[in-house]
Amino acid sequence: MLQGKEHTQSSELGAGDIGAVAKLKDVATGDVLLDHEEPVELPRIDFPEPVMSFAITPKAKGDEEKMAAGLRRLAEEDPTIQLRRDQQTGEQLLSGLSQMHVEVAVGRLRDRFNVDVDLHQPRVPYLETIRSEARAQGRYKKQTGGRGQFGDCQIVLEPLEGHTGYEFVDKIVGGVIPQSYRPAVDKGIQEAMTKGELAGAPVQGVRVLLVDGSYHTVDSSEMAFKIAGSMAFKSAYEKANPVLLEPIMEVEVTAPDDSVGAVNGDLNSRRGRLQGMEPRGGMTTIKAEVPMAEILTYSQALTSMTGGRGDYHMQFLRYEEVPAHIAQKVIEETKKEKEEVKA
């Protein structure tokens, strides 16, 4: 039993008692300790979902594993802390219930595990797609003493409904491209789609028709047709009216009735679309759809507007086209970052 600095041995701990047990390596917050012969099943604790995420990187190179191990340990103690990797942006994201919550976790990481980290705003996982049909040829020819390389294909790009998915359709008639080389064209196209020409974001919502081409009996190879497929896609993509897509989040805000006007006005300023309100006992639940890019720092704003009495949670809903003036800013920022990396 714990009483200030005093630690008193006890033979048992009952419900409601506060005590300490040493060296429980495999126990996490929310676990129940009891006699395995007692058929007791207690309801699990429902912890709130994290609402604020930061990209996290260690200050010292080589501390990635130490950082991940320390944060995993902290998450066992506090299940409202989450560490995950964004598959698209490649960033490690640390999520918590507020900015202060995340900062406290970072402080504990430094003090207990001796790992210093930097926090910064996460990248928005944009996507790219096309709005019109386009046709292009990819022709790869290289001759360097001995056997050369030759691949030639013609493709047609078509937009898919809903801006999702990818289809490759083989429309070759006869043997203008041997069957064994056609999958290489598909592979080259898919590799080119991992980084679009607008903002370097993955491309989706595209159907590719392989319609024509030619080959050389000696110089053609899978690699040559893979490169030709990539060249054809990039050429057609530029003509297919490409557009940037952004993630739209479904947001549910609970705020005091006297703050509803301020919250609605703020959501509108963030390009939000209000979907409805439900007043209940002095509090109002506001439902809205808001672009992720506009709501990364929402926690601080909501706290300020509601005097700390507001709460919210959000989940991914769908992707939508980015308005032209905002897309241009994103594209310019991406180009600037690329130039800085090259420099």
Task: Explain the overall architecture.
This protein is an alpha+beta fold. It folds into three domains: 52-120, Elongation Factor G (Translational Gtpase), domain 3 (Alpha-Beta Plaits); 128-240, Ribosomal Protein S5, domain 2 (2-Layer Sandwich), CATH 3.30.230; 245-325, Alpha-Beta Plaits (2-Layer Sandwich). It has seven helices and 15 strands. The chain has helices at 64-77, 99-113, 182-192, 222-239, 260-269, 298-306, 324-342, and strands at residues 2-3, 6-7, 52-58, 82-85, 92-96, 117-120, 127-130, 134-142, 149-159, 166-170, 206-214, 242-256, 273-280, 283-291, 311-321. The strands form four sheets. Strands 7, 12, 13, 14 and 15 form a five-stranded antiparallel β-sheet that branches. A four-stranded antiparallel β-sheet has the order 4-5-3-6, covered by helices on one side. Strands 8-9-11-10 form a four-stranded mixed β-sheet. β4 and β5 (92-96) form a beta hairpin. α1 (64-77) packs across α2. The longest helix is centred in the last third of the chain and has 19 residues, at 324-342. The chain is elongated. The protein starts with a strand and ends with a helix. The model has no long low-confidence stretch (mean pLDDT 89).
From the 3D structure, determine the CATH topology of the largest domain.
Ribosomal Protein S5, domain 2
End-to-end span in angstroms? 61 Å
> What is the overall shape?
elongated
| CATH class bucket of the largest domain | Alpha Beta
Q: What is Rg?
A: 28 Å
The counted number of beta strands is 15
Mean pLDDT: 89
Sheet with the most strands, sense and barrel status: 5 strands, antiparallel
Q: Treating each run of at least 4 consecutive H or I residues as one helix, how many helices?
A: 7
- Number of separate structural domains: 3
Strand content: 25-35%
Structural class: alpha+beta
The helix fraction, in percent, is 25-40%
Order of helices and strands: EEEHEEHEEEEEHEHEHEEHEH
CATH architecture of the largest domain, by name, is: 2-Layer Sandwich
Low-confidence stretches: none
